[in-house]
Amino acid sequence: MSDKDSKRTLGDLTGDAVEENSSKLGRLLADVFALYVKTKNFHWHISGQHFRDYHLLRGEQSRQIFTVPRAKNERSIMLRKKIVMAVLIALIAGPVMAQEAKVTSLISKDLKEFSGKEGLMITVEYAPGASDPAHRHDAHVFVYVLEGSIVMQVKGGKEVTLTPGQTFYEDPKDVHVVSRNASKTTPAKFLVFFVKDKSAPVLKPVK
């Protein structure tokens, strides 16, 4: 039996058709996944007066990307299960989809005395074992731990573990190389205050 014959399905698809459909489906899944990642990135990198509204909007849009109409027959259900499984494997394997932080915007205010600058206050919640990849803020950043414990480090600095009541500061030129929950069993929550350019995103990934 040839390789192509071994790929025949129980239906009327030939081995060549299976290969062609698999290739197209793979490209489709890659495009959907790329759209999801880009939407989530925009979801986290919004700044300005309407931070909260756009943050929630992009979050809902990212959830709807994988929402599909109800399957009407057994074959559609089986195909959907396979597609969902492939997507889940990609999500689990992809480092960009590691446990994400929950960000809540508290207040955003233009600083009239400092042209082009704004103050932004948010809370960040890390699930147990959660972390952020290396990034920078291009802003003055003041961190205050509310619950649990977190590990922070900027490039060239020492790694520190912070507990409730302790603080951390980042200079606009700093690269934040370590930001994670110190515990794998307990969530952590901290307050962050930014003094930043109004047009600048809250976070910029660093390779």
Task: Tell me about this structure.
The structure is a single chain. 33% of the residues lie in helices and 29% in strands. With 207 residues, the protein is α+β, with helices and mostly antiparallel strands. It has two domains: 3-97, no CATH class; 102-205, Jelly Rolls (Sandwich), CATH 2.60.120. Strands 1-2-10-5-8 form a five-stranded antiparallel beta sheet, with no helix packed on it. A four-stranded antiparallel beta sheet has the order 3-9-6-7, with no helix packed on it. Strands 4-11 form a two-stranded antiparallel ribbon. α2 (15-44) packs antiparallel against α3. The longest helix has 30 residues, at 15-44. The protein is elongated and about 70 Å long. The relative contact order is 0.15.
The biggest beta sheet reads: 5 strands, antiparallel
Count of discrete structural domains: 2
**Beta-strand share of residues:** 25-35%
CATH class of the largest domain: Mainly Beta
Rg: 22 Å
Percent of residues in helical segments?
25-40%
CATH-scheme architecture of the largest domain: Sandwich
CATH superfamily of the largest domain: Jelly Rolls
Regions with pLDDT < 50 over 5+ consecutive residues?
Answer: 92-98
- Give helix and strand order, one letter per element, not per position: HHHHEEEEEEEEEEE
Alpha-beta classification: alpha+beta
Strand order of the largest sheet: 1-2-10-5-8
Number of helices: 4
Shape: elongated
* Span between termini: 47 Å
Q: CATH topology of the largest domain, what is it called?
A: Jelly Rolls
